[in-house]
Amino acid sequence: MKENRSIHRLFTGIILTTMLLSACGSESASNNIAPTVEPSAAPLPVVSPQSSPTAEPSAIAVSGLTGMPVTEPILPRPLSIMINNAPAARPQSGLSEADILYEVLAEGGVTRLIGIFQSHTGVVKIGPIRSIRPYLIDLGESYGGVTVHAGGSQAAYAILQKEKKDDMDEIGRASAYFWRDKNRKAPHNLYSNADKLREGADKLGYSKDTKVPVYVFNNPDYIPIGGESASEFNVYFLQKNYMLDYKYDSERRTYLRSVNGKPHMDLNNNNPVEASNVIVMGADHKVLDDVGRLQIDVELGGEAVLFQRGQVIKGRWARKPNDVIRFVKDGEEATLYPGVTHFLIVPNTPTFNSHITLGPSKVQIKE
């Protein structure tokens, strides 16, 4: 806790310095998208990861995906990694160091995780790594990342090959950049790390310079008003093995994640899997075959709720062409709090709200 408060004080100092510096420059630097409700302090200016360190010597380098300070003024291309979430694959490695984490259904009620890794460049072990589906390609690629996986459906391979995607497949030509952990049984034992994957991407000739989207971030000290209290919430996909609980920790300012009542921890460092922002979004799911493969609409938008700072805000998710999914309230993109963001994609059936309950009493969110 002491370390977290120290980091918070450091980060607050950085924010104040940045705001004072920007006041001396043009007014446009502080005119970012306004937060959903009137804040007590202006939202943080977003500094692109691709900003030149020489163009603004006094500027603080900030991740466009997390809103957090970074040590490198120019961050590497993201890695979009398909991570196994079967019970036998838990606890996974590297989840606490992902900038963005998606959870979405695969076939048979099993969920898959997509970790977007950029600002933590030296993650020593990531996985277990699993196969890919068309909508997983779409979600990971929206961040400009190299797609990392082990196998995939026929439909996914057709997309990868026809469109010549920048992907690293363990059962393909990138096999040298993965390894098997002898302490686990296949297929829950395939891993890689950030350095090996970036080395492989270089050897395969993949571009290092891609467009990486940025989110809009709020002042971390701003306390939201007008939202419904939500210090704890539960999310249900389709199977009992995938019951999620998120509890707000006011000291850490994050929601701590549990799976089936057990805290979700990172095997690398024993850190909790946590998020400053959790977006639960509803999408149309269609079963395509007798294996249970799915088609999931991750483009047209729909109902969504945003959990942050112990409150829940009801809104919608939206996605423009060639962009990432964003949470929208009253037609405006909502500001996120600096830190990790989790996206949980649940079916719209029987209803979107049927997949989310609030508090230990499991009260359904009101329409």
Q: What this model shows, in words?
A:
This protein has helices at 2-24, 134-141, 154-162, 194-203; strands at residues 79-84, 100-105, 111-117, 146-149, 167-169, 179-180, 190-191, 228-229, 232-236, 243-249, 254-259, 262-263, 274-275, 277-283, 285-287, 294-296, 302-308, 311-318, 326-329, 332-333, 341-347, 356-358, 363-364. The protein is an alpha+beta fold and 367 residues long. Strands 1, 2, 3, 4, 5, 8, 14, 17, 18, 19, 20 and 21 form a twelve-stranded mixed sheet that branches. Residues 1-58 have low confidence and may be disordered.
Distance between the termini: 37 Å
Name the poorly predicted regions. 1-58
| Percent range for β-strand residues | 25-35%
Rg, alpha carbons:
20 Å
Question: SS-based structural class?
Answer: alpha+beta
Morphology: globular
The average pLDDT value, as a whole number, equals 85
Count of individual helical segments: 4
Share of helix among residues?
Answer: 10-25%
Number of strands: 23
Oligomer: single chain
